[in-house]
Design goal:
Blueprint: E1 9-13, E2 18-25, E3 28-33, H1 39-55, H2 67-77, H3 85-99, H4 109-119, H5 123-142, H6 167-178, H7 187-197, H8 201-205, E4 212-213, E5 218-220, E6 235-237, H9 240-253, H10 265-274, H11 284-295, H12 300-307, H13 311-318, H14 327-331
Antiparallel strand pairs: 1-2, 2-3, 4-5, 5-6
Helix pairs in contact: 2-3, 2-5, 3-5, 6-7, 6-10, 7-9, 7-11
Amino acid sequence: MPRRNSGPRLRFLEKRGTYYIVWSEGGRSRERSTGTADRKLAEATLGYFLHVRTRDAGPRDPAEILVTDVLADYAEEHGPETGSPWRIAAAVKVLVPFRQGKTIADVNRESCRRYAGARARAPGTVRRELGVLRAGINHAHRSGRLTRVVAVELPDGAEPRDRWLTRKDAAALLRSALREPRVRLHLPLFILIGLYTGQRKAAILSLRWSQIDLDGARIDFNAPGERRSKKRRARQPIPRRLLGHLRRARCSRGSDLGFRLKDIKRGFSSACDRANLEDVTPHVLRHTCATWLMQRGVPLWQAAGYLNMTPDTLQRVYGHHHPDFLRGAAEAFS
């Protein structure tokens, strides 16, 4: 009578001094080295081996798949396709200890609320981390590994920030940036581009002269050959005031725009402290640009196109700065 196939298991081979994974397949014995004589390391290798073997075995019920396996697949397969894989890795790192040994079927409203309470972090942080869990489950379903999607409840998002700079604040920040020793050649231009284009920090820091057409007064924040993320980048006409600064920078700095820096976070923070500006980050420059456009009465669809932002987001977050905001309703009483 043939021996029952007990599946892949560990066996220590004395001759080779190494643990091997052994199993039967199609009536033949197979083996694979773990590369170690340490039992714990060998068990970890066996666990990964089993995970890979069962990952492509077809869709399974949520009660049969571990959360940690789904997160590992998502980080490994989808992470490299994103512009910031480290964000996914950071979320997975904190999710794993809370979900160790749990299956997808254990994910429900109560478990998500317990996670939020145990994390004791800002709602936005918890929402972002649970969003990675939701995305991982959806990825497993789209990849044919899950028979159905399980809902992940996210906490309410924080209210949009309404921090922006007045013209006086912006002038003070620029003056301080000119005296910042670490990045004084780059920081003032970074601030000017942020104020006049409203683009995100990463888009500005990756900017090269080849993306700037000084003759045609156009600027393209999409670097050739770089992966496009959901954080869309704009193609814009260059405002006259910014165009002069760019031309002077081009003449004085040659072929290198000088934004290939690791970051301007410390220099920017130091300039804000010197200008006595509190709660200001580089992203506040984007808020400021959107606010100024609304205050100047720029039509909603034009401002949204300029910022590469949806009209709904622009109206919801910045619309109250527009001079026509709810004016029709107020004048109905006149």
